[in-house]
Write a structure and sequence with these properties.
215 residues, alpha+beta, four-stranded antiparallel sheet, 13% helix, 24% strand, peptidase activity, VanY-like_core_dom, Zn_M74/Hedgehog-like, signal
Amino acid sequence: MLFIFTCLLVVGSVAVSAQTACTVNHVKGTCKVTTSCTGKSVAGHCPGAANNQCCIPTGSSCTASGKSGSCVATSACAGTSVAGQCPGAANIQCCVASGGASGSANGLCGSYAGAAVSSIKGNGNVAYSVVKIRTEHLTNPAIHTAAPTAADNTMTTTTACAFDKMAAAAKQAGVAIKIASGFRTVARQEYFWNCYQTKSCNNGNLAARPGTSNH
């Protein structure tokens, strides 16, 4: 006689929510809604809705090696942790930009340290902190003086610092890296989209729908 036993394994559904990592002024954080942040919420560093912001640990300001930083745990520092500049536990150290020239309170470094920072709204109506791209980094230096509403001549502060390091390293290797088009306002994307749809301006060149452009 053959007995067959059937086992039914019921597995409940498990919801997994992946959180996006972010960095503000060299301090590591996580993108989350402002109401769930127990630290400091900083706009302009996360995708999605306006209330989805970079949540970073709060810490007092500090200065190390001529650079402005924040007193946070060493594990939360994406730059360089410098001991002896902050009160509290031994792992609470001054987090500043790694290498290069002195940084700034806006998280800028290298040739962009001290650059004027403005705010521009991008996809999802999220406000981003941006700076003008330096003339030597543009394929068309003439657009540097134009307003961001008239030319794609800005980039986010985080991008500016990273690009400056990359451009400097490339220059040492004999390679010049230039930017043809930077951060774009939603209004400019709407203009290009309408041109693409109507073929009445901008040569009817291909353009992404506003809100979906990688600019």
